[in-house]
From TrEMBL:
One of its GO terms (cellular component) is plasma membrane. SUPFAM superfamilies: MetI-like. GO terms for biological process: D-methionine transmembrane transport. Its main location: membrane. It comes from Thermosediminibacter oceani (strain ATCC BAA-1034 / DSM 16646 / JW/IW-1228P). The chain crosses the membrane at residues 16-38, 50-75, 81-102, 145-167, 187-210. Keywords: Cell membrane, Membrane, Transmembrane, Transmembrane helix, Transport. PANTHER family: ABC TRANSPORTER PERMEASE, D-METHIONINE TRANSPORT SYSTEM PERMEASE PROTEIN METI-RELATED. It is a multi-pass membrane protein. This is Binding-protein-dependent transport systems inner membrane component. It is found in: Cell membrane. Belongs to the binding-protein-dependent transport system permease family. CysTW subfamily.
Amino acid sequence: MSETLNLLLLATWQTVYMVAVSVLIATFFGIPLGVLLMVTDRGQILQNGLLNKILGTVVNIFRSVPFVILLIVLIPFTRWLVGKAIGTTAAIVPLSVAAIPFMGRLIETALREVDRGVIEAAQAMGASPFQIITRVLIPEALPSIAAGITITTINLVGYSAMAGVIGGGGLGDLAVRYGYQRFMLDIMLYTVAILVVMVQLIQVAGDLFVKRLSKNR
């Protein structure tokens, strides 16, 4: 039992590590991407049809590729970036690449929910586009942005399990190597239970954070 517990603890830590780092990277790049998608659209404060179309096309291409295929396609890039194609750290690369466009679209949607009148009022007061983005759009959309980060995090938990299928480590890898290949049903059930609990905790924490941000507006 102690060996099983050690395996589960290690796999859980690897999953948390993969998801946490991937969420940080996706947030760092996804929020600016979502802002650009929104403000360069037709009728927005930095309208740029060509840039918006290019960004939208790239985002749609990456979002349309199934994650398992993306894992394989990105193997050369992952090996070049981190020096290896398998392992927990290597899995962060495809996880982040999959999460950035996904979060970008969620951020874009969140910003579109901001009342147009608030933006026009800021423009009438002489605010620059940068000021409108940093002082109006993002602050007004913070609850929706937090909800988008929560959704992305939950999706990455599922993606991390899929990454384990090709040696990415974490609970998915444990389930495949021990639960499936060695027919250890108990480990398979434990990994599923841990993933379910993990998702529930993320959702509860995210909901509480969104409510707090909504009250502070």
